[in-house]
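Lecture 7 notes: from sequence to structure.
We start with the chain below.
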Amino acid sequence: MADDKNKSGVMLTAQQQVRVSLAMQRVAKMVDKELHKAAGEPVPFSLFTWGGGRSQYVANVERADAKTVMRETLARWDRHEPDLGPPHTDGKGETRQ
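Predicted structure tokens for the same chain:
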């Protein structure tokens, strides 16, 4: 990364990065289980962290698939497409029933 500090000013030590890396494996298992439970089938995901001079990620998909989705997301952001909010909201921040 060009700057070792992210926008929030976080700069993780090497030891913290190792702990985060190990925690991400546990978190990924929990996320995978909860998303599967919610959808009734496996749901692809990836999780990113940064703040230690490089980003870290964990996913339940192949790297090539994660890269494709990341590129698609970045392209939408670059086009300044409107943020419609999460699907469980009505676009105005109110939770759908």
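Points to note: Helices lie at 14-39, 63-78. Residues 14-78 form one domain.
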